[in-house]
Amino acid sequence: MASTSITSFPADAVPQAPEDPLFGLSRAYKADTSPDKVDLGIGAYRDDNAKPWVLPVVKKADEILRNDPEANHEYLPIAGLQAFTSRAAELLLGKSAPAIAEKRTVSVQSISGTGAVHLGALFLAKFYKGSRTVYLSNPTWANHHQIFSNVGLPIATYPYFSKETRGLDVDGLKATLEKADEGSIIVLHACAHNPTGVDPTPEQWREIASVMKAKKHFPFFDTAYQGFASGDLDRDAGAIRHFAEEGFELVIAQSFAKNFGLYGQRAGCFHYVAPSGAGAAEGANIATRVSSQLSILQRSEISNPPIYGARIASIVLNDDALFAEWQENLRTMSGRIIDMRKKLRAKLEELQTPGGWNHITDQIGMFSFTGLSEPQVLKLRTDYHIYMTKNGRISMAGLNSRNVEYVAAAFDKVVREAQ
Question: Which residues are catalytic, by number?
Fold first, then answer.
């Protein structure tokens, strides 16, 4: 007997999904007609005029690309643009990294950082033989949960942010990693932790690496802000390089959305590094096998990665003068963010807003965990037209010289009212 249902996907099988909180926040901001409205939710750089900033070096690379008579729109290889992926690996591991010299690395172009995390999750779900539990920091980038859940990997969390100090709970972090099953997958933010802006110190990174080595855990680095966080590409890659130097087998998801401003071009890479203990020959053999399987996964997912953003980044990464200019552009962006941190903290302290505000400048990168409660966040939205995520995370890029005092005064009022 034929089914009388009008659809194969009734509501009990496919319920209405909730709107993505960040995109819902953006929609509410755009609908707000107040001239005072401030968007502190968006995770994209804005200049002091609250406008998107096309990096000057990207404009130059774009001009070079448009005038290249050999440029075309043919498919890239499955693994992507080799001139881009090879330089991307050097950016993370260092030009003279033994892992690169010994051919123990595999680099595959991805759909920005999100695609890189997904490709890594898919690879681990299919091939990883250790403990399959993925440990995420509490809190972490919200998309991490969905990506790893989608491929069937179980998720656990490790303590990260201390509400008391508004800094790193390094003791809780290490204790959880020590108790985790041997060989667990540990997702680590290489720099500019999202959403807290709290990073381990170099010494704390060494302690974390020591615990992970003792427990034979598998590091999965996610890096979206190299060079954008501190303005120093090498400094922001410090954690990854330390783990590689310690001989870990690891993977890295790398995005060029923030540090090149190539948000919509989706330029990224996924990297695998074979363990140094395998020796150069065996390490290269492992890398070759991993590369073959990543190509099959990539083929079934996207077939070939997009070309434009990779070409723009490649032009810059392979030209000494343009690379130096890119570093200057990075210092411009990171410097403006750091300046906004200083100004927001200074104004809050000038107003004698209750509570300590040193965490605003102690944190780094695009985001800051303010410590504001959900009711305070909602009051800021309704009364002052200031938009941020419900957990009190703000994008420092949304602040500028014209609105920072207004934002600080609004923070002051909601904090005092909650006393």
Answer: 141, 222, 258
